[in-house]
Structures are given as structure tokens and as C-alpha cells.
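In practice, a research group might receive sequence data for several interacting partners and want a quick structural hypothesis before committing to experiments. The following worked case mirrors that situation: the sequences arrive first, and a predicted assembly follows.
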Amino acid sequence: MKLHSNIHDDISLKQFVIPGLTRNPAFSWIPAGVYPVLDTGQESRVLDATNVAVYKRIRFVISNLAIAILNGIVWGLIMALIALGLNMIFGLLHIINMAHGALYMLGAVVAWYLIEVTGSFWIALIIAPLCVGAIGLIIERGLIRTIEDKPITTIICTFGVMLAVQQLVLMIFGGSPRRISPPVAYRFPLFELQYPAMRIMIALISIVLMIGLWIFLRKTKYGLWMRAVVQDREMAVGLGIPVNKVYMWTFVLGSALAAFSGVLAAPIVSVEFMMGRDILIMAFIIVIVGGMGNLGGSVLAAIMISLIQGIGSLFVPPSIATVFALAFMILVLMFRPQGLFGE
Amino acid sequence: MFIQKGKSFSFILVFVFILLVLIAFPFFVDLFYQTFLTELFVWILFAISFDLIFGYTGLLSFGQALFFGLGSYTVTISILKMGLNTELALLLSIIIPMIFAWFVGYFSVKLTGIHFVIITIIFAIIGNIIGETWTAFTGGSDGLTFSPPPFRLGLFKINLMDIKGNYYFVLALVALSYLFLRRMVQSPLGKVFISIRENEDRARLIGYNVQRYKLIAFIIAGGLSGLAGGLYSLTLKYAAASYLHWSVSGHAVVYTIVGGMGTLIGPAIGAGIVMFLEHYLINYLQATDLVVGIVLVFMVLVAPKGLVGLIQSRFKKGEVSA
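A structural hypothesis for the assembly, expressed as C-alpha cells:
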């Protein structure tokens, strides 16, 4: 299982080993290469500016740290989009959408096809969420409407949808992972290393989408209705809000958000039919840590978790970092089931 | 259907009949189908152990894969690396998952609904990550292969490398587990489980320590899932970290929903139907889970009580009209 994204794969401090430096005895209990920041050799040499190797190493560590932070923010914003969709659907419809990861994957796959046909990432970015939104519409109208009041049943039902969608994609798209070449190839220098500008672009698009969502929820009629239904469903019905329609559009919007993040993640991770399976769990974790129904909390939690994973995987293997993150989630679930940022 | 209290004579009759048919099977079908049926028995055990916590106690756990994988690793590692005999390895494959189930359950049963689902998934994920990372011990995603020594119990000896011997061995243990679970759900303990499923608050008001009973159900189901995992490894002579993936629990969910939750016989029937469906579909379709997913959605929408529930309601209607 790979809960960490391979966005962090391109950085590793372990590559940078300086010959001739003795290990700091204070850190001798740590295996060599595991803890490179602390393991910079003798302190006297660290302070010695003439020691070029140590100086270079520190520069290298700083640039890696900068990249880890940038990667963490970029990936956190992508995860925030998925988690926002999941959280909106949960907050309004009170259902857990196990198919959400599959919708994310579908967004990336549809984008891959659109890029094959049209050659433009930007067309895919607009069309793919529309397609996935339409599929979300079918799922909501066809399946979820009929079983809305049974939470456990909806979990199982959407689990079935997840299986079906994944396997459908396996049949049509094939099992081997494919790559989308980033539409912006420029890499800008960042200390000792280089960073792809595309990732900054992805982060900006995510931020624009989130601001758009915020304006939608705050300033439009539908947004007002959605917030009203979240607060008090019966009262909303009494005031003549078409709750049924609000449910439908919320689900469609959530699906489209998942697809957006799928398209945005596609140039970073490889596109394959299983890519949504583990992301789904990560999105659940973000929603729980941020607080169920708390949209701002989800964004914060997504960036926080992604940053911790990114920076943590500089020092320990990413899988170990994930295990610690998961153990932390268990504690959150036990002691603050309303989320870290809830009242 | 045939498992209602007060109909135990007809139950015994049907049970013995089915058992005799299954005992006779290996003389009529080839080795491929013998292995296939052995695997089916293992999945039946996994499904009915899941039915105890989901169908009877009302806890939707997607973390049963953890215990399944633990059981399979316990058998594999204790035979391959520690040189234990099969009897002890199999016993450990019940006990060790039970200990883990106690640990996981201690945290999990305090939560309800969606939080319970998620926390069980998280535990399974942790297990899977450790399994894939700790390759020196677990073999990672490549897994471990081994050849089990014969199973001995007194003068009794079964060669597990022989497919037919393995078939009878698994059949016997699954049948025993089924009887054990059936006895349990009919006992006062089982009634408490059902009362928790039906109305947790009321069960608490009557004076039952709901969390404790949930934990008991969780531990028993964990142990039997472990046994299923152990038998699976003995059948395939193989264990891998992918057995620990939370989506393996999805098998049990599918079988239970298709067959009918809270009936024990339902998940067994469901496992049979779904596995045979997959087996025949694989000739035409690479992605058999597509059909499984559609069947699952269809059953949830049309017959949430599964096939057994469908048949039962048909029976009752017949009685009323007669």
C-alpha cells in the first residue's frame, strides 16, 4: 500500500554522502544515512566555513527541505480538493462515499483520453470534471437516492460502485500505469536544485477552485440552500428549499471536485485504475482530522498531513512516516472524533 | 430457511446431507475443482466469521483482512522460519489474530458507525504497510512460499501436500467452525449480539455492557478470520502482504450481502455463488470484479437481506396465503 504520493520520490538526502567526514558519535545509534540532517559529522567542522563539503551539504539539506515543503503544499492542495468533495457529501447527505477515490481516478483517466485526442491539458481540466460530474449525477439519482437513510447500506453500495468503476477502467484503459506529460515543462532553480513550475501552477489552480467553491457557498442561492440544509434539514424543507435537488447537486459538485484533483494529480503521479483506492483512505483521514462537515478544517488538515508526510519522509522511510501518521489518526479518532479543528 | 430454532432435526439432516455431498465431491471432479472448492471453503469461513460481527452484532468492519493476513502469516512463518508443526501453527493462527483483535477491538468498539469503519480500515492499512516494508520477515509483496508438514492428531494423519487431503482437512475445519458459530449465535451470548445490533441503547439499558460484548464478538470473529487465513496459506502454500490489504475484507462484505447477513448460511451461499460466477466469467471477462460490484449494488438496492432473506420472505408470504 502506498499512502504517500510519489510526489516525494524525487528527493532523498541519502544520496548525498560526503567522503572523509566522520560520523557524529552522538548519533551513532541511528543507522547511517537515515538521519542525515543530524548526522553532519563533527560539530567543529559544521561551524568551520572553510569546510566546503559541510557547507554544501547544508545547502543541499535546505534545498531538499524547501522542495519537501513545496511538494507538501502542492500535494496537500490536491488532497484538499478530494477531501472537500468527500466532506461536502458527508456533511449534507450524511453518507460515506466509498466510490470517491474511484471518481478521482476516473477524472485522471478521462483526462488522459482527452489529452490523447485534443492534446491540451487545459481542455481536459475543464471537460473531465464535467464528465465525472455527470457520472456522479447518475450514481446519486440511480442508487443513493433510493437508500439515503441507511448509512451502512450506502457504504456497501458505494463500495460496489467503486469495484465496478475500477474494473470497468481496467477493462477499457488497461492495467498498466500511464503518464501525462506536464503542459508546462519549465523548471525554476531552487537553491541547489530545480523545481517544476507545473506544480506551482497546479497549486494555484487548486487555490482558485477552492476560492470559487467558497464564493459559491457564500454568495449564491444554491450555496445558501446547501448551508441551510446542513444546519437543519427539516427546517429547510419547511422553508421550501428543494432539498432533493440540493442533494443531487452537492453530489455532482463533490464528484467534480474529485475529478478536478484527479486531473491535477495526473501530471505528478501516474494514471492507473488503482490510483484512487488508497487515496480514498487518505481523504477519509483528512476529513476526520479536519472534522466531519468542517470544510475549512479539511483544507487545513490536508496541507498539514501532506507537509508532515513530506518532511517526515526526508528523515525516515515514507512508509514508516505513514504508519506514525496513521497511529496519530487512531488517537484523533479516539479522543477527538469531531476533528482537531472542531469546537 | 432451514436454520431456525426448533428445527434442529431438519437442520442436522440437511447439514449431514450437504457434508456427505461435499465429501463425495473429490471422487467426481478433477484436481482443479478440488483446489477451487478448498479455496471456496476458506472464503466461506472468512465470510461467516465476518457475519458474526456484521450480520449479528452490526459492526461493519473493513479490517478483517488484518486478521486474515495475520493468520496466514502466522502459519507460514511458524512453519517456514520456526519449524513448528502444522497443528501448533494452526492453533497459533487462531490465537495470535485473537490477541490482535483484542488490541484493535479495544480501540474500535468505543466508536460507532462511520468512525468504526474507518478505524478498522486504518488498522488494516498499518498491518499492510508493515507487511510490505518488513520484507526480511514477511517477504513483502513477493510473499513467502513453504511446504507444510503433515497434520497429526494422535493416530490421525493428513498429508497437506496432497490436494485431496487438504480438501478434507479444510472442509472438516470449516464445517466445525460453522457448527461452532451456529451454536454461538443461538446461545444467550448470540442473543445479546443480536440485541446490540437491533438497538444498542436498549441493550445498554437492560444492563448489558455493550462494548464488552462487541469486543467479544470482534475477538471471536478475528480468531476465525485468522483460521481462515491460516487455512488459505495451507491450501496455497503461500502468504503475502497483499492478504493484509483492507480491500480483502471486501470479499467478506460482498459474500455476506449477496447471501444475506445475519443468517450464517447466507454468507456461505453468497461465497459459493459469487466465486462460481467469477470462475465462469473469467473466461469472457478479464475484470470479474466489475460483475461482482454490479451484483453487490443490485443486491443492496433490490434485496438488502440477501438471497436467504429473499427466500425467507417468499416462504413467509406462502404461509400467509396458504
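Before designing any experiment, note the following. Residues 210-236 of chain B form the longest helix (27 residues). DSSP finds 14 helices and four strands in chain B.
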